[in-house]
Amino acid sequence: SLRFGLTAAAMQGFGYLGAPLHGQLPRARRRTRTARWTSENKRDSKKPKSRLLLPKGERSTPTQEDAKGFGSKISLADLSSSMQSAEDPLWDLLRRQATIGASNEPQLASYLFSTVLNHRDLEDAMAFVLAEQLATGYFQATQWLELLTDAMQDDPSYGKSIRADLAAAIARDPAQRHAVGVLLNSKGLHALESFRLSHWLWKGGRTGLALYLQSMISNKFAVDIHPGARIGDGVFFDHATGLVVGETATIGDNCSILQYVTLGGTGKETGDRHPKIGNGVLIGAGASVLGNIKVGNCAKISPGTVVLKPVDPFTLVSGVPAKPRGRVTSSPALEMDHKLDTAEDDDAIWSGL
Q1: Residues contacting residue 36 through CB under 8 Å, at least 6 positions apart
Q2: For 145-182, how does the pLDDT look when each residue is reduced to its tens digit (9 = 90+)?
Q3: Is 109 within 8 Å of 68 (Cβ atoms)?
Q4: Which letter does DSSP use for residue 274 in this model?
């Protein structure tokens, strides 16, 4: 246990990091998860559980910083290089950090156990977290949990999207030091994964329930995404408050979108009326993209911009209305750099307002 910076009590109380705690799950959930366990995702029960290998040079005993929370931060590059043998490296990391956190902060021990350590895999944990967030007196957590489990079993890409979105938040949010903190505390991630359930319901013809879930997401997270919208993988909603996405809008893979962004229409027209955002696009806080227009791959939209015309790929736009200000030579959504390229660009924008 010293290798992981854990106390003996923590290891005894929460079990070995890689061991699923099946006996702790409610009976109804055990039955539900058994079907999934024996499906095409069935794992070899005889395969040894993978151990989390610490990055080269990392101390094997807790540092002063470790004692304050979930342990030292591990980058995605460190995670990839140090866990080649892990079946699900991200899930192993989450369990490791939750165990350290429970040891360092006993007041959070029961919370971390119920949300992370008591679950078989990341899909289970995410479903539990979302169900607790969405529960009301009229629609209980167990009902949401059943729907989420059904959706994840029916659509294998759901779990892939969860991992890509979680990894995106870990890599791009400087305020988050730990994966487990993102899983439990990021309302942008919670809103996005809840939307994925509403979209599954919408595609399945259960539009009434999908629209009810849209309302619950809006009430709980202050994020309004129509269940008919289409959103790719590796998407990061930073802060997320005030985000609005219309019914026929699409968002590509690996995009980053900040608070108070609107992807809306221009009036009361019906049909295909909302923006189409390409891959790798960065949209700054307070920006609005209106109408059935296309924003090209790796474009960057500055904060407060109002976009009414199509945006070419690798183009920086800003202003009201938006005007091209230069070319983008990198991946803006990954770098999260909202600054303009030059001081001249900055002066030009302010003079045009």
Answers
A1: 149, 152, 153
A2: 999 999 999 999 999 999 999 999 999 998 888 899 99
A3: no
A4: S
Q: Label the pairing between strands 288-290 and 306-307.
A: parallel
Record the pTM.
0.77
Between CA 181 and CA 142 the distance in angstroms is: 24
Whether 55 and 80 have beta carbons less than 8 Å apart is answered as no
The dihedral of CA 65, 94, 173, 83: what is its sign?
Answer: positive
Rg (CA), the chain: 22
Q: How many CB atoms lie within 10 A of CB 27?
A: 7
Paired with 329 in beta bridges are: none
Angle of CA points 331, 86, 108, to nearest 5°: 85
* Distance in angstroms (rounded) separating the CA atoms of residues 325 and 315: 8
Q: Cis omega (within 30 of 0) on the bond before 321?
A: yes
If we measure between CA atoms, which residue out of 247, 245, 238, 122 comes closest to residue 189?
A: 238
CA–CA distance from 335 to each of 4, 166, 189, 279 (Å)? Answer: 31, 16, 19, 14
289 in Cβ contact with 301 (< 8 Å) = yes
The answer to whether residues 22 and 116 touch, using CB atoms and an 8 Å cutoff, is no
Between CA 64 and CA 298 the distance in angstroms is: 40
* Total residue count of the chain as it appears in this document: 353
Q: In the chain, what is the greatest distance between 2 CA atoms, to the nearest angstrom?
A: 68
* Residue 233 backbone phi and psi in degrees, to 5: -100, 160
> Whole-angstrom Cα distance, residue 183 to residue 130?
10
pLDDT of 112-142, one tens digit each?
A: 999 999 999 999 999 999 999 999 999 999 9
In the block, residue with structure tokens 């109804």: 28
Helix, strand and coil in the chain, % to nearest 5 = 45, 10, 45
